[in-house]
Amino acid sequence: MQATSSPVFRIAYHVSRVVFGAWFLFSGLWHFFWPWMQPLGNTPQAIAFTKALMASGLFDWVKVIEVVTGITLLLNRAMPLTIIAVVVLNVVIVYWNVVLDEGLVEYTFAALTVILTAIITWPWRAWFWPLFIWKGEPDHSLDSRLPGR
């Protein structure tokens, strides 16, 4: 039985994808074009965390991933892989906004991050169910086929 597609959810998906993609693309490019304007946070913990990421060089990689995922979100391409990368970044973003740099604006960004990611992920959920297989059979062949095909 074919499920019916909701036009309202389709619009919510594309709006969320474009807003989130633009947000990630802008946030990632900001670091490279205007590094002196990079927000460090408002609390000593947030500032120390951000400076440690920058000093280690990891922040550059985070921002590259933000740029790449921003582009793929805007283009609606490689979405399962994009979603996995976005979720990993979002764990840090939500932690930073809820634990390290508390405040109404930060809580709002954390909530928007979770909500937009959930909306973007839902239409792609079938691609993720196989990740929850507890005990499966490995394929030791050298065949590059997709599972189940």
Give the helix proportion (percent range).
55-70%
Largest sheet descriptor: none
Rounded mean pLDDT is 92
- Output the number of helix runs: 5
* Poorly predicted runs of 5 or more residues: none
Task: Give me the Rg, rounded.
Answer: 18 Å
Explain the overall architecture.
The protein has 149 residues and is mainly α. It has one domain. It has 5 helices and no strands. It has helices spanning 7-33, 44-56, 58-75, 79-100, 104-121. The longest helix is centred in the first third of the chain and has 27 residues, at 7-33.
SSE layout and pairings?
Blueprint: H1 7-33, H2 44-56, H3 58-75, H4 79-100, H5 104-121
Features:
mainly alpha; 66% helix; globular; 149 residues
Q: Brief description of this entry?
A:
With 149 residues, the protein is mainly alpha-helical.
